[in-house]
Amino acid sequence: MVREITYLEAVREAMTQEMERDKRVFLIGEDVGKYGGAFQVSFGMLEKFGPERILDTPITELGIAGAATGAALIGMRPIAEIMFMDFTTLASEQLVNQAAKLRFMFGGRATVPMVLRTPAGSGTGAAEHHSQSFENWFVHVPGLKVVMPTTPYDVKGLLIESIRDDNPVIFIEHKLLYKTKGAVPEEPYTIPLGKADVKREGRDLTIVATSIMVQRSLEAAEQLAKDGIDVEVVDPRTLRPLDTETIVQSVKKTGKVLIVHEAVKTGGFGGELAAVIAESEAFGYLEAPIIRLAGREVPIPYNRELEYHAVPQVENIVEKVRELVGLKV
Amino acid sequence: MAKEVIMPKVDMDQETGTVVEWRKKNGEHVTAGEIILVIETDKVAVDVESPGTGILEGIAAQPGDVIPIGTVIAYLLSEGEDLPGRQTSASNLDQETPVLKEEKTFRQPATPLAKNVAAAHGIDLKTVVPSGIGAKITKADVVAKLQGEYSEKTDRKVYASPAARRTGRENQVDLTRVEGSGPKGRIQATDVLTFLERQDRTELPVEPQSIGPEVIPLIGIRRTIAERMTANYQNIPHIKFTSRVIMTEFAAARIKLNERATRFDEQKISATAMLVKLVAATLARHPYLNSSLKENDILLHRDINIGVAVALENGLIVPVVKNADKKGFAEIAEEVNDLSTRARAGKLTNAEVKGGTFTISNLGPFGIEQFDAIINAPEAAILAVGATQFEAIPDDDGIIKSYPVMRMTLSADHRIVDGAVAARFMADLKTILEAPILTAY
After folding, report:
1. What is the least distance, in Å, from the CA of B165 to any CA of chain A?
2. CA of A120, closest CA in chain B: separation in Å?
3. Which residue of B has its CA nearest to A323?
4. Which residues of B touch A285 (CB under 8 A)?
5. Nearest chain A residue to B164, by CA
6. What is the rounded distance in angstroms from the CA atom of residue B33 to the CA atom of residue B52?
7. Residues of chain B contacting A284 with CB distance shorter than 8 Å
8. How far is A294 from chain B, CA to nearest CA, in Å?
9. How far is CA B321 from CA B344, B357, B358, B360, in A?
10. Do A327 and B183 touch (CB under 8 A)?
11. Active site residue B286
C-alpha cells in the first residue's frame, strides 16, 4: 500500500529531499520562511534548514528571479518561489532576457540550473491579480522549460527532475490542486521532462488537458463513461519540451480531439496543441474539427459565480465531448 | 524607358502565337538581335530576336500560352528601371488583331489563353464561371467547363473530414458519390467505409474510377490541321483512282542511283525522292493536276512544287520541294532529307511550307498497302503511296509470276479534274514509274 499525501506535501517533500541530497539547493521567496509560504508549501522548512537556505525576501519579484539567476550562474541550484503566478510579470525580465539566454550567449559554458515555482489558476476567490495562468508566455521563450504537474505523484517526480535539470524551469503549480491527495512513494524519484502521460485510456475522443483541467477532464470522462462514451485523457505534463508523439498517437486512435486549459483561449497553449496536431500525420485521422475549451476572454472576476463560469468546469467538458462525439460539430 | 517585347507577327494570316520556350529568363541581360524566345505559329516554330538591349523582365507568357499578336509579353529595362505599371498592347500595331477586337464585345473578362481555348472548343465564355483574380476567366475555368466539372465538382465541393478524405484516397472512392452523415452533411470516415461495404455486398463489379480524359487544348499546329482537314474534306468533291505499279525497274533504277551516290559519297536516294521527281515529270504533261481553283478562275501553275507530307510527333507538316521537275534525283533527295529532318525538329521556315502545287503522302514505310488522302487545298490533287510488296500476278499467258507491286491512289478535285483527265495522269505516271528511264526521254 503506497502512502497517500497531498500535492502540497509532495512539493515540500521534493524540495526537502533535494536539499538534503544537495547542499547547493536552496529556497528563496516572499514569506517562504517564517510564514511557511502563502499556501504553507514550505511550512517547517526554515526550522529544518535554517535561514541561510530558506531565504525570505522583500516584496521584489524581480529581485528574487535575479538573485536566483545569479546564484545558479555561480553554481548553486536555487528554487525561487513567486507567491502568485500573476507576479511573474515583474520577474519576467530576469527569466526571459537573462536566465533563458545566458547558456546560449556563453556557448554552453554557463548554465542556469534554477527552478521558479509559482501557483497559477483561479477558484479561490482571489480575483484579477491572484488567479491568472500565464504559462504560454513562458512557453514562447526558447531556453525556458515549462512544467505543469497535475497529480501529487507527478509534482514530486517532476520537481526533483526540474531541480536536477541544468536549465531554468518554470514550474507551475495549481492552487486548487494543493489539497488533492494521491499515492506518492516516499523515496526520491524523477519523471523526465517532455514526457506526456495518458491519464485515462479511451477510444472515442482524446482530451488534451493541462493542470487542474486534467482532473476535471477525468471527472467528465467518468460521467461520460456511464453513457458509453469512452474518453482518453492525455496530460502533456511538460509544455516545453512537448511530447507531441503521445498526443499524435492518441488522436490517430480516436479521430476527435478536445483541448482543455484554464488560461484564456486566445493566444493560449491550446492553439499550439491544435497546430501541432493539424501539422502532424494525425490530421488525416481527424473526424471533426479540433475544439478548444479554455478560459473566457475576461480577467478573472471577484464574484464567485462569475469566477466559476470564467474557466472550464466539468459540465462544460461533458457538454463539449458530447457535441464532438455526437458529430454536432 | 522600358521597351516592350510583343508577340510578333511572322505570317500574313497569323492571329496568335504560342510560346514554345524562353531562351532568356527574367533578370537576364540581353542584347539586340539575341534570340530570347521561341514561338510557334500554326505552321512553324520561329526564333524571336530581342528588339533591343537591356534587362529582360516581366515575362507574362509561359510555354504553351497562346497569345494574340501584338500583346506585350515582356519588357526590356535599363539598369535600375522598374516595370511599367500595367501591360497594354503595343500602340504601333498596324495589323489587325481580331482576338483583341473581340475582347471589346466580351462582357466577361478572360485571359487571352482562356479565350483561345474557349474559341478552339466552341465554348461561349458567358457560360464559363470565372475563378480568377477580379472574376477573370482563366484557362483552368474553361478546361473545367469542358470536363463538365462544374456540375460535378465545383457546385458540389466535397465536405468531408480529413479522416474521410484519407479513407477515400486509400480505397479509391470518389467522395462525390458518398452521402455524409456528419453535421451539415459532412462525410465521415465511416460513411466511406459504409459506401465501400454496400458496394461489396451488392457484388457490383467495382467500376474503375473515372478520372476523366486528359484535356489537350486544340491549339497551334493541331488546330490548323483540324480546321483545314475539315474544310478540305467538306468543300472539295474528291474523286479517287488507284493504280497498281510493278516496281521492278523503279527498284533497279534506285539501286543504280544509290551505287553512284555511294561512289561520290553523296546522300542516298530515297523512294520518296524518286517519286517526287517522277511525279513532277508527269505533272508537266498534265497541267490540270497541277492547278488551283481560285474563285472564278482555274490557275494552271507553271511551277511544279511538290509537297511531301512529314509526320511529326504532334501532327504533320508538308514542306515543299520547289521546281521539282527541273531538279535531278540527287538534288531532290538531298532537299527532301534536309526538309524532313528540319520539319521533325520544328525548324522549317515559313517559306519552306508554302507554295506547293501537288502533294505526295508516302505511308509505304509503315507497311500500308493502300490508302487515300484528303486534298491539301488550294492544290488540285494528292497522291497517296502505299508499300511495295511482292505479289503473284498472271501474265498474258496465264503464267503466275511474282513482282514487287506498289499501289497508289490519287485524290483529285472533281471541280477541275475530270475522271478521264485523272485517269490519263495515273496511266502516264504508272508508265513512268514502271520505266523510270522515260524521264530522260
Report:
1. 7
2. 36
3. B183
4. 162-163, 166
5. A287
6. 7
7. 162-163, 165-166
8. 23
9. 16, 10, 10, 11
10. yes
11. no
CB pairs < 8 Å spanning A and B: 30
Task: Residue A327: list chain B partners with CB under 8 A.
Answer: 181-183, 186, 188
A314-329 residue pLDDT tens: 999 999 999 999 888 8
What is the C-alpha to C-alpha distance for residues B232 and B227, in angstroms, rounded to an integer? Answer: 9
pLDDT of amino acid B132: 60
Nearest CA in chain A to B163: A285
Closest CA to B253 of B389, B404, B364, B360: B404
Mean pLDDT taken over chain B: 84
Q: Which of A253, A322, A327, A328 to mutate to test the interface with B (most CBs of B within 10 A)?
A: A327
Q: Search chain A and give the residue with CA nearest B190.
A: A287
Looking at chain A, the whole-number percentage of residues with pLDDT higher than 90 is 98
Given pLDDT bands bounded at 50, 70 and 90, which one contains residue A107? very high
Site from B159, B161, B190 to mutate, A interface, most A CB atoms within 10 angstroms: B161
Round to the nearest angstrom and report the end-to-end CA distance of chain B: 68
Search chain A and give the residue with CA nearest B191.
Answer: A287
3-state secondary structure chain A: CCCEEEHHHHHHHHHHHHHHHCCCEEEEECCCCCCCCCCCCCCCHHHHHCCCCEEECCCCHHHHHHHHHHHHHCCCEEEEECCCHHHHHHHHHHHHHHHHHHHHHCCCCCCCCCEEEEEECCCCCCCHHHCCCCHHHHHCCCCCEEECCCCHHHHHHHHHHHHHCCCCEEEEEEHHHCCCEEECCCCCCCCCCCCCEEEECCCCEEEEECCHHHHHHHHHHHHHHCCCCCEEEEECCEEECCCHHHHHHHHHHHCCEEEEEEEECCCCHHHHHHHHHHHCHHHHHCCCCCEEEEECCCCCCCCHHHHHHHCCCHHHHHHHHHHHHCCCC
> What is the torsion angle, in degrees rounded to the nearest 10, for the CA atoms of residue A48, residue A53, residue A58 and residue A63?
-150
Per the CB < 8 A criterion, the answer to whether A105 and A69 are in contact is: no
> Which residues lie closer than 8 Å to B355 by C-beta, 6 or more apart?
B303, B305, B320, B322
**Angle at A28 (CA atoms; ends A22, A30), nearest 5 degrees:** 155
Q: What CA–CA distance (Å, rounded) separates B198 from B22?
A: 53
A197 bridge partner residues:
A235
For residue A283, which residues of chain B lie inside 8 Å, CB to CB? 162
pLDDT of amino acid B106: 41
Chain B hits for A329, CB-CB cut-off 8 Å, are: 183
pLDDT confidence of residue B115: 79
Q: Do A287 and B181 touch (CB under 8 A)?
A: no
Q: Do A329 and B162 touch (CB under 8 A)?
A: no
Give CA–CA dist B292/B290, Å, rounded.
7
Tens digits of per-residue pLDDT, B240-273? 999 999 999 999 999 999 999 899 888 899 999 9
Q: What is the pLDDT of residue B208?
A: 57
Cross-strand partners of A56: A29
Strand-strand pairing, B358-362 and A77-81: unpaired
Nearest to B275 by CA among B383, B369, B413: B383
Question: CB of A281 within 8 Å of any CB in chain B?
Answer: no
Q: Is the per-residue pLDDT at B277 higher than 90?
A: yes
Cα–Cα distance, A271 to A290 (Å, whole number): 10
At CB < 8 Å, which residues of chain B contact A? 161-166, 181-183, 186, 188-189
Span A147-170, mean pLDDT? 98
pLDDT for the residue numbered B383: 97
Give the lowest-confidence range in A73-87, A180-194, B296-310. B296-310
pLDDT for the residue numbered B100: 37
Partners of A255 on chain B (C-beta within 8 Å) are 161, 163, 189
